[in-house]
Amino acid sequence: MERNEVLARVQDIFRDVLDDDEIVLSDATTADDIDEWDSLSHIQLIVAIEKAFKVKFTSKEILSWKNIGELIDCLMTRTA
Prior knowledge:
The chain has 80 residues and is mainly α. It has a single domain (3-79), classed as Non-ribosomal Peptide Synthetase Peptidyl Carrier Protein, Chain A. It is built from four helices and no strands. It has helices at residues 3-17, 39-53, 59-64, 68-79.
């Protein structure tokens, strides 16, 4: 799967979970950039991404991500 395809799928998940069709993700996007992205929705987002991509992230991985780009990098290595 290409990186832009992964980003598009993650963006769709964000739009669905956060109920906001206006969300546009980039590698540099962080929780500070999206009003609806709080600690509770963060957990919902991670669970939804894990289900969609059939992966399970470790706490260490999740805590290491500084932005969407790092999440995508992790997904790319897991789904390669």
